[in-house]
Model the fold of this input.
Amino acid sequence: MSADASPAGRGRIKVEPGQKRVRAYLHGYLVVDTVRPTLVWEKPQYPSYYLPLVDVRAELIPTGAIDHSPSRGDADVFDVKVCETVAPRAALRYSDSPLAEIRDLVRFQWDALDEWFEEDEPVYTHPRDPYTRVDILASTRHVRIEIDGVTVAESRQPRMLFETRLPPRFYLPLTDVRMDLLRPSSNQTHCPYKGIATYWSVDVAGTVYDDYVWTYRSPFAESQKIAGLVAFYNEKVDIYLDGELQARPHTPFS
Done:
């Protein structure tokens, strides 16, 4: 079901019921536990969880602040308190929203809470999108990657990862990468579909390109095919596929 809050179509978002049990914790204390989540696509890339007020276990303390959205209206902003722990400005409620489906729901700021679970499995960064698919396929296509005209990786045994709304990613064995050009990075990111990624920067003739390369050393079960392989941002390097230079895609990672 789609909802449109403005006559011109600005701020159109999709709202639909979820099917999973969702729980969130703060400092080990349960904040919310529901089997009736609602998915709201505030951003086109992935949804947010809006959860029934009646399933909230924490205390919501009004701050007096208002957060405005063109599509959802004005939200009251709350601090979230469990025992003596307070997460400031961690919850929103659009009680007078033009979207009737979300008026009795609470949206928690994802990073303000410590742990999120879908059923009994932890989920990171944002809820899993039920319309996102990840396919990982073995290939013998010839992949060559250049930075500033220098070949930094070349392989004929890539794993090609196809993820909804993103360009194909080419995951390569480390033995097919110029390891002498890689510099370990302290950066880590979380993907709700693949797990925790660690990074390297690339040093090409004294110019360091920060966090251009990543790997999932222990990915989730559904992404085991890329365990220990590495990928480069298509958006930032030159990738030749079977000898043909690929256009650099424009994505949120550009």
About this structure: The chain has two domains: 2-122, 134-245. Confidence is low (pLDDT under 50) at residues 1-10.
